[in-house]
Amino acid sequence: MHHGLAYGSELHRGFMAAVLEAQSVWKIYETGSNRVEALRDLNVSIQNGEMVAVMGPSGCGKTTLLNCLSGLDDLTAGEVFVEGSALFSSGDRVRTRLRAEHFGFIFQSFNLIPVLSAVENVEMPLQLAGIGKTESRERALEALNLVGLKDWASHRPMELSGGQQQRVTIARAFVHEPALILGDEPTGNLDSKTSEEVMQLLFRLNKEKGTTMLVVTHDADIASRCNRILHMEDGRIIKDERTEEE
User: Fold this and answer.
1) Which of 8, 29, 129, 147 is the most buried (most CB within 10 A)?
2) Which residues, including other chains, have CB under 8 Å from residue 231's CB and lie 6 or more apart?
């Protein structure tokens, strides 16, 4: 466990092999008389090194699932364990630290900071973790090199194409070596050729670096190239499918 902290009852000993374990997760939104069960008694386990796709119709809870699994959203009930540590019963400070250390994020809209250069965007997770300027810069440049953008390190997002911006986002997502990268339609704003290049990069990171990934996608071809597909409907996982890629 990170930093040698003892979480006591937070340690979920039965699932130490799992990078992520969700148990009986509920997420209910209530506004006045309106009640929406966005996640309904959901259970899932993600193992180290897996590349998992999440598919389902619009409004079935895919994005809510990512937000709840990563601690960005509160749960109504249930618990999520990341590498054995409870995400929600550990208090806000520990939850924030666990989220920063254990997760990397790839958004459809990139979410890069426009006033920062590519390398400054990438080194942010390292600086937030307290890593010094020199090491942060070196590791950020290595990450940009891995995604083919070292020569673009000093460029700001507006000076980059959509595909280049998403590559910067990917570099930022894995630079701190998280346990799990979460992607919400990572190719949603890209043309088909650029989408393929970005997905090839993600598949390569998964295979060569062993990076565990959970990716929401509407693209059946992308999903079929993952080694597992979670099919969602009405806030539940209705099918957990292993593919031939595994």
Assistant:
1) 147
2) 55, 56, 237, 238, 239, 240, 241
pLDDT tens, residue order, the chain (246 aa):
333 333 333 343 343 468 999 999 999 999 888 999 999 999 999 999 999 999 999 889 999 999 999 998 999 999 999 999 999 988 888 888 888 889 999 988 888 999 999 999 999 999 988 899 999 999 999 999 999 999 999 999 999 999 999 999 999 999 999 999 999 999 888 888 999 999 999 999 999 889 999 999 999 999 999 999 999 999 999 999 998 654
- Sign (positive or negative) of CA dihedral 112, 117, 122, 126: negative
Q: Quick count: other Cβ atoms within 10 Å of Cβ 30?
A: 10
For the chain, the domains span 2-242
Query: pTM above the 0.90 mark?
Result: no
